[in-house]
Amino acid sequence: MVGTGILKGMAVTARNFVGSYFDKERLITVQYPEERNPLPENYRNFPFLIFDGDDPHAGLRCVACKICEKECPPQCIYIVKSEDKKPDYMGRPQFYPKVFDIDISVCMSCQICVEVCPFEAIKMDKEFELSQRERFDHLLFRKEQLSKSNDYYHKIHPVEAEAVDKGLADAAAAAEAKKKAAAEAAARAAAAKAAAAAQPSPSPAGNAPTGS
Ligand code: SF4
Ligand code: SF4
């Protein structure tokens, strides 16, 4: 019958309208911006850079390898590598980005930069209230603005951040075990060499004493 669909739709609306007074699950609108619905774990917007600890410079995970810059489809990442180095999360000296900009007016939130980063240094943010009056400069996010703590990452993507921390801890433990094994092997080799050097060398056959 013509119009059945409209009646069915209106019945759904009426059920939700009346039901919303009794069941909060049926309330599908909120008084934004005073009220906000929680965003799902895998919601993403634009990328940000992660730092460990309290210092955004010392703890910045990015080593300025530029892989994300090369792989970004619309080419909206701009990196300048430092000339000096600072220790990374495993204590190894690494370069860091002197400049790291993302033009979010161009970024298409594809997450490719996150997928290709070998250092878990760039992740997707959930921040979406980013409108600006100025179209150009104000939408070019600088390193200082992009750098956010690992605690913030845990807050917005708790499950993912937990898995990343575990992966980094496992990698650090494996690197430490490898270093220890190499040091032990070197110590064993040095001890064997010292023991061999301490052995008296056999007398040459030509100098053997002869009877008279
Ligand atoms: S999310 Fe995609 S478009 Fe945006 S910076 Fe990363 S790679 Fe580039
Ligand atoms: S964010 Fe990751 S891929 Fe991009 S430069 Fe830094 S370390 Fe390399």
Q: Give helix and strand order, one letter per element, not per position.
A: HEHEEEEHEEHEHH
Write down how many β-strands occur, each being a DSSP E stretch of 2 or more residues: 8
Summarize the main sheet. Answer: 3 strands, mixed
Oligomeric composition of the shown chains: single chain
Shape: elongated
In the sheet with the most strands, the strands line up as 6-1-8
Low-confidence stretches: 208-212
The proportion of residues in beta strands is 5-15%
Helix content: 25-40%
Output the radius of gyration: 31 Å
* Mean pLDDT level: 90
Question: Total number of helical segments?
Answer: 6
Cα distance, first to last residue? 134 Å
Structural class: alpha+beta
Ligand roster: iron/sulfur cluster
Task: Describe this structure as you would to a colleague.
It is a single chain. By secondary structure, this protein is of the alpha+beta class. The chain is built from six helices and eight strands, in the order H-E-H-E-E-E-E-H-E-E-H-E-H-H. The strands form three sheets. A three-stranded mixed β-sheet has the order 6-1-8. Strands 2-5-7 form a three-stranded antiparallel β-sheet. Helix 5 (150-156) crosses helix 6 (158-198). The N and C termini lie far apart (134 Å). The structure holds iron/sulfur cluster (SF4) (2 copies).
Keywords, separated by commas or semicolons:
single chain; 212 residues; alpha+beta; 3-stranded mixed sheet; 3-stranded antiparallel sheet; 37% helix; 14% strand; disordered C terminus; binds iron/sulfur cluster
